[in-house]
Amino acid sequence: MTKKQIKRIFRIVFIVASISSLWFVPWILVKAWILPEQVNEAIGHGFDGMIVYVDEAEKPPAFYTGGWNDRENKIPVDPKLLFKIASISKLYVAVSITKLVKEKRLSLDETLDDYFPELVNRIENAENITLKMMVQHRSGIPNFTNNPAFWEDEQKNGKKALEFALDLPASFEPDKGYEYSNTNYLLLREIIYKVVGYSHQQYIREEILIPLGLNNTFFSLKEVDIDDVMSGYYVGVDEDFKTNENGMLATAEDVGKFLRALNDGSVFDEGEQEIYPYVYEHGGLVPGYQSLAEYHKDINMVVIQFINTTNFDGYEWNLSEIIINRIVKILRNEKAHNRVDGSD
């Protein structure tokens, strides 16, 4: 038997062992699975807990967990926990905008001042910023989360977030650059409300969640049992950020089902997918919670990764991207191996 064959058998045995220990997988085992041959370098990275959901088309989904949901009480991660998905929610908003465009209730060519004339003198170039530019982050509207004053009391200031983007110079002329800006989607959610006459949450629930059977996606902590929410931690801070209000929550499975529907087109009605102006995968980051939702067309797989430890200096985020890239590499290699063996 060659070294390559031995290595492959070892990897398969290790994965099977990890799956069989799904509910109480020690963190070090998860790291050994996702970072083979480089685990020693990553052992001390400090993540508290992790959920990974893998959906390979026409196969039952797989869940992988590691570490702690509640580190103080040593409660292990459960794959069914709710997680704060943060900016992944932008995908749901972009789909909603698409549906309203198809219904001719709004146009991607309409401008910001069509809906907010009162902001013409407070957001530079408001009369030239189209909805499409906002969806695609090409508006030049400053990002309110880039304003240091916003973070002085994030929970309080989140209720008046737009104020932290007003009266500031534009980042660039409309459609002349790209800058990720949460302000774009704050305004788009308000535009949905203006168009339909009720909240964007209700519209998303009626037009996306219910049709797809996503029963474990919510918009506020007020809608859920707090014990069903995964704890969230910030590096160097003892506080559990679970009770902070940060918008949408969902299980990894619900996010995975949505991402599959987005990429295979089943979230859209006829004629909508051709209009859709945004991306097909996304990440999310709020204090205590970082998430990645990816679709890999070459292997037809959805991979969702939730990690409940953050900092905002970039280290934890970059490490989370390295981890998911390793996961995808393993999945891609295994799929290629199965094709060769004729077992795919």
Textual characterization of the structure:
The chain is of the alpha+beta class. It has a single domain (83-341), classed as DD-peptidase/beta-lactamase superfamily (Beta-lactamase), CATH 3.40.710.10. It is built from eleven helices and eleven strands. It has helices at 3-20, 27-34, 39-42, 89-102, 112-115, 131-135, 154-157, 182-196, 200-212, 252-264, 315-341, and strands spanning 49-56, 62-70, 75-76, 83-84, 217-218, 233-234, 249-250, 282-286, 289-296, 301-307, 309-310. A six-stranded antiparallel beta sheet has the order 3-2-1-10-9-8, sandwiched between helices. It has a three-stranded antiparallel beta sheet with strand order 4-7-5. Strand 1 (49-56) and strand 2 (62-70) form a beta hairpin. It is globular, with a radius of gyration of 21 Å. Residues 1-44 have low confidence and may be disordered.
